[in-house]
Input
Amino acid sequence: MKKILLVLSILGILVGCEEKKEEKIKIGITQIIEHAALDEVVIGFKECLKEKGYDESKVEIDYQNAQGDFGTAQTIANSYVQDKKDLILAISTPSSQAVYNATKEIPIIVAAVTDPISAGLTGNNVTGVSDMAPVGKQIELINALLPNAKKIGVVYNTSEENSLVLVDILKQEANKYGYEIVEKGITNINEIGQALDIILKEVDVLYTPTDNLIVAATPLVLSKAKENMIPVIGCIEDQVKQGALATETISYKNSGYQAGKMAIEILNGKKPNDIPIETLENTVLLINKNSMNELGIELPEILKERAVIIE
Output
């Protein structure tokens, strides 16, 4: 009898261990499209969780990419709701809107969303980190690097709420310096080339907002701009690494890390609506040396002290 009880006791312990293994925290990560900035958010988020003790033994992460299609983003969101995720990280405005459409109960952390309020992401189950671009600083950068520029071109996706917000801010900031904004709206990635062919013949500099379609098409944007010898002021670090002249930008990895800290607060019992949406204040100035040389531009003394030069 003692042997039987011992065996049953051991079996009970083993079953208990199995049950604990199955009790992992389930986190869904949904991303609208693949490009460096959004990928950095994922890296920062995972890094934060791991550093705070939420590694693979405790957390099961389900990452899915919509490849630029909102319908797919909605399908991903619905699958996360059906799977009863404990928390969802939604990267980009379209992905965040898709998730919010699907659930008002599962905690949602949004990231790489320029203006959560104008995007309608104001529910009790939502918080996150805005990637509002420092547009004012970017216009100051144009003024310092390109003192003879008069017309700024911008191509953007009219279906992205964040892009509409940024173009409005761009117009306001550009007006302070007397710049004329030449804009071309597009609705899909296939229209970008034609829009660039038109706009690059009319402007002195091309500005790229944090628009997911435009950022994903950076190689095309830079190629067209180079053909026309038009400098590009980018919105993220990777664009400058690829050949854009310069940008003043936030760190998307830091944005993801901050989202990770919020996730841990929620997993520990804090309600999303008790965590204010945050905006990163620190920015970095990035200059591409090769592009500067090709365009015959000299780095002004006023920028030399804080500029990070990319070769």
About this structure: The two ends are 77 Å apart (CA to CA). The longest strand covers residues 25-31.
